[in-house]
Amino acid sequence: MEFKHQEVESKWKNFWTENEIYKVKEDPDKPKYYVLDMFPYPSGAGLHVGHPLGYIASDIIARTKNMKGFSVLHPMGFDAFGLPAEQYAIQTGQHPSISTHANIETYKSQLDNIGFNYDWSREVRTCTPDYYRWTQWIFLKLFEHYYCLQSEKAKPITDLVSLFEKQGSQNTGAFCGEKYIFSASDWIKFSDKEKQEILMSYRLAFRKKGFVNWCEALGTVLANDEVKDGFSERGGHPVEKKPMMQWALRITAYAERLLDSLNDLEWSDSLKIMQQNWIGKSKGAHVEFKIENADENIEIYTTRPDTIFGATFIVLAPEHPLVDKIVTIDQSNLVSDYILYTKKRTERERQSEAKQVTGVFTGSYAVHPFTHKKIPIWIAEYVLIDYGTGAIMAVPSNDQRDKVFAEKFELAIIPVIDQSQFPHSSIEEKVGTMINSEFLNGLEVAQAIEKILGEIEKQKLGKAEVQFKMRDANFSRQRYWGEPFPIIYSSDDIPVSLTEKDLPVLTPWIDIIQAGSQGQSPLIHATEWVHEIADFTRETDTMPGYAGSSWYFLRYMDPKNEHVFASEEKLNYWKEVDLYIGGTEHAVGHLMYSRFWHKFLFDLGYVHTQEPFKKLVNQGMIQGEINRLFLRKKQTEFDSTEYADANYVKDFNIEEFVPVEVPLKFVKKDVNGKSFLDKAGIDEFLAFRGNDLRVLVHKKEAEEKWMLDSEIGKMSKRYHNVVNPDEVVAEYGADCFRMYEMFLGPLEQSKPWDTKGISGVAGFLRRYFSLFWNANDEFYLTDEEPSREELKVLHTCIKKVNQDTESLSFNTSVSAFMICVNSLKSMACTKRQILIPLTQLLAPFAPFITEEVWHLAGNSGSIQHSKYPEANEDFLVEDSVNYPVSVNGKKRYEWKVSKAKPKSELESEVLELDEIKKWIDGVQIKKIIIVPERMINIVL
RNA sequence: ACCGAAGUGGCGGAACUGGUAGACGCGCUGGACUCAAAAUCCAGUGAACCUAAAAUUCGUGAGGGUUCGAGUCCCUCCUUCGGUACCA
Fold first, then answer.
1. Would residue A46 be called left, alpha or beta, if left means φ above 0 and alpha means ψ between -120 and 50 degrees?
2. Whole-model pTM?
């Protein structure tokens, strides 16, 4: 009997919908389980085969947990604000809200094809006003709070104001940015504007100057992604950094807590380490260096105060505010040229090209606080303004980059640590004995750090301090398609927050999306909206992509609530996400911001867990194949269009050609798996490129085969290699697609997409289905008692699949199913007591075919509501063991013996085996290693 | 450059805490069925040596180390992928 997947799939899809099989309820009598996928950005290319990898895994978990008696929340939604929709609007004139919702509909139908158990009544879209009003609401809360270091939580800014009124700025315990010192009476005398400026230094959402990628030619601010080597990717125009007032979130206030509570999470060590390094806690010191012939000091930050006697120069970030003040006339041209150069460099470039360090001397000198010698002050791009104080003391003897810099510019290097006792250590390792360091001489590094810190504080030269690499999060975007800020500005530019009643602040409709003349958000053109409130103007920046995604998992709990972002009752029921599945590309960004928002909401008493995601698993990426032909660069307009295949091009200088991507759907594979285009493929390709009148296509071989240059890479619309799951589902069925994606390999690993193995999974499902049909094509199950052998096969499979589901090792579960079905098939098993539990076990993986079998077998209701089978160990016991017998670690024989045989007998009998005798003949046996039920090794 | 991950047959991968390397599937080869093909079923399939069988040797990115025993642990290196704060 053939399994007609198309008919069966639509039948059960309707059945599930009509009977609300996947309706999620908060059932107080059941334990809860919340399994979450990172929701997709609905791009115009549609869902591709990489998306469902994690979704299928979470679907299997959700269905399994459901069958095990949990109340399961497994929702889906859309991260719907973002740059691509806005870019698309600029190019085509189609409004982002139209294209976004259209894309979402496509995504939803594609997801439904795969048979996920989503309860769509819980869907969220970050771009809808009923959702983003709560994003804006959280922002207002951030704006209205500061962080209190004493109670280690966020507190209302009004509390801080009362503290200021009573005691001024001293001992408030408040975490702040720029430090202000004032008394209570000062505070009372400050103007409103002054007060607001001071409070900005404390608010968790605040305004500060930040740098943006400004492209003069395009008249717009570009995303980092749109900038390549200091030029805009579109058009190739120069891009430079421009300071702008921007909103930011004071995530640094939570750095310590974000670091500490990583310990409580069931995340992979590598992910925790990535977050740890991102937070980058270091203990060090701020030290003031006097500037020669000036009143000002340079404050540097160092994690190696012990090496201070090796500091032979100072390096400032080119953006450092002191640069202007200290640069000498002689050096001013050099310095300003250099600053111009660094403005065009991205932060990554500034850090990565360590071998070709650059920098210039400012002409000024600082005074070493201990030796009182004068040391030159340089500026260099490898010092970043955002990290530490934007200034370092350079110790070329013990810092690799300082060393390269000193060597290039011939600056002094004073060795300060004798590392001769540690021959394999690098110069940056904190080992060795201090030399050339006055009162530190003879001390070990660790002692020297303690001593110098004491000395620095005693002499009031600076202060020991803990520093974090993590920076406050920029929260402004000069864009249209994002959440508007609930902020207005008074005539003297004081930002004023709107109230909860004013939410949501709706995105105004504008017909043409275009940046403002100074690079402002396109919202600047919604003049009426900007001036809607008398005497005030609205903030025109919008929130970044991560705003909506920092809390969406909470909204799924109660997506329709109009009074709160989620009710107390629902929040109490679902608490946190039990299992979160998503890509490593979000390892720091999204996961860090979500944790921060969650902790903030926890402080305010809205959520009741410290952390949002208890367990987290990173799924790998499904890669695509990128195929290319080569297009000869035209010398004149009149040249013909010439394409060359991968073999032809080898005889030429590759510089004469530009690679062009060939859409995957035209590509054929030869017997060696090499990609090529046949005649028809070439014709399709040329049509796709827009047929030129004079076009040549070169190839090397005589055969009608144009070889392609092929590589594995990202699946993306840009490379025309996106594989749509719909086609695979239409051909093989959703069950087969689901199981094949799982069968491809471990969830965490990246792997290329290739359908060539799918026939194996299709064959497995066919064989499974055929177990239920007799020779006359009738559905056939018997009620006979199963044999011990059959029970062993079934329970081996149940045990394996259970273990593997726990550990998310779905590829090996699929193998276990294959092994089980192969065995049952060869036993010609037709027994209900075997085949029905197998069907239930398979139901989370292949919901359609198992639902069909469940009903054919006479059951009513959904198999998804039946009870998950349990493994019975009684059927699994073996009474003999197959020992590998090794001689000197090399396996020589396989020995089957009873499990009951005592170790002493094993030891003597093994030496009597003919196969072993020949290896040990005449040689002294040193020892025999026996690991019970594992292996035997004879050591000669 | 920095942080993190991965590298095993022709291919995707398996191997639990250091204990039989290559489960399962694809592909390939041979056979059965068929007028033939497709589908299905059966058998074989890491490499070398050998007419064949048996046996042996070599094999988990490269090089070194620890161990009775290393795909697994340690050190150095190479390659690929993800992230590096405005792609999502």
1. left
2. 0.91
